[in-house]
Amino acid sequence: MCVRRKFLLFISIFIGCIIIACIIIAACRNFNHTKHPPPQKPQPSTSPSLPPQKPKQSPPRPQISPPPSKPPQPPPPAFESPRLALVYPVIQAFKKKVTFDPKEVTKTWTGTNICRDYKGFFCDIVPHYNQIALSGVDFNHFYLGGRNLTITDLLSGLPDIVFFHANSNNFTGSFPTDLNKLKYFYELDLSNNKFSGEFPYRVLRATKLKFLDLRFNAFAGVVPPQFLRLNLDFLLINNNNFAKKLPENLGSTTANYVTVANNEFVGGIPPSIGQASDTLFEVLFLNNWLSGCLPYEIGLLKKAYVFDVESNYLTGSIPHSFQCLKKMQVLNLARNNFYGVVPEMVCSLPELFSFTLAYNYFTEVGPRCRELIKNGVLDVKKNCIVDLPDQRSSADCANFFSRSHSCPNETSLTYVPCTQVYSSAQLESSDVHLTAPAPAPTQPPRWLTYDALSASYVISSRHTHYYM
Fold first, then answer.
1. Pairing mode, if any, of strands 306-308 and 282-284?
2. Burial class of residue 55, CB neighbours in 10 A (0-12, 13-18, 19+)
3. What is the DSSP letter of 390?
4. Of 435, 445, 324, 443, which Cα lies nearest the Cα of 372?
5. Is residue 17 part of a domain?
6. Mind listing the pLDDT tens digit for each residue in 330-388?
7. Which CATH number fits the domain that encloses residue 150?
8. Please, which residues have CB within 8 angstroms of residue 30's CB and are 6 or more apart in sequence?
9. pTM of the predicted model, to two decimals?
């Protein structure tokens, strides 16, 4: 009985739970229906249907054309002229080869304004093109160096060059083969560099050269006769190792200034030197191995004012033709083997400033020469003049004169071309007008060829203009 009651109670509770669940579900459905009603079907309209209206579009904005553009301006030229553009890569290629630049000049070789900014380069208007062009190079005392640094490509690549000056650098190697193509090239200074080997024959192709300076290098061998045919004003080859004889056509040079000093030349001074009578001003033969007697033709050098043969092995007496050297200021015959009487006429040269006969074997001087000694113009120390101080020993003089001394041109040594006098007796005749020696100047004159004996001294002058 009790079990039955419990069963009925359970059934009642279960049914009640089902009813409650149904009520809750129904309530939720009604809530959703009221919140989201189903879509209404469209009702048929009594009015006639109209076509759907298109949305209004705004009128197009008026097109505004941009203002007309100015015609493009041509870019400014990179170089002042095409002639400068031509040499720019040449300079830059050379710059890459320079590895030693103590003055840092190559740092200025940047940009396109070569004429204004590049140290050592100079410009001018080249006549043929009427354009600004690179007219000159002045590397004097730059001390540039590099592995086998040469001038070949640089010089060949500067077609309008007038001068190339490079005293005191470290250039070496060969010369360009096409120097003949440089139509304005007048000056070449390669003094005090590292050149060596035989004479640079290629320089002979630069036929317009007026100035050539090869001093203080290590060139050796023979100087070719063609060298004397260049139309030079300056011929400076001192302080090299040139040897053999001087060219026989020495007198064919047009140079006003010639120095072959401090080389190894042998033999005599060519008689052709007299052919330079109208052009030669200064000539230095000092410190070579020259021998033989002086040719009388030296007396023909009527415009010369410097003649120096110191420190050679020359011998004989002083040619009487020397009295014709009316412009002579410096006459140096020291440290040779000259002997005999010093001609009085030579001591009467009107412009004589310095007359040096020291370390020879002269035996006699006359009153005019003694006056020069007194004035400090004539130096005769270490000779064999018995009544003067500071002479050689008697034994030294006796030893020298114990040997035979003569010259093959002995007769010509008494020839005086300016008076056409041949004999020593006639030299004292009234036809020879001797003058008293001029007083020594208070300030010594300047002699260009002696400056050339200094390695760092720059002889050349810088000409930026073109010769026509």
1. parallel
2. exposed
3. S
4. 435
5. no
6. 999 999 999 999 999 999 999 999 999 999 999 999 999 999 999 999 999 999 999 99
7. 3.80.10.10
8. none
9. 0.77
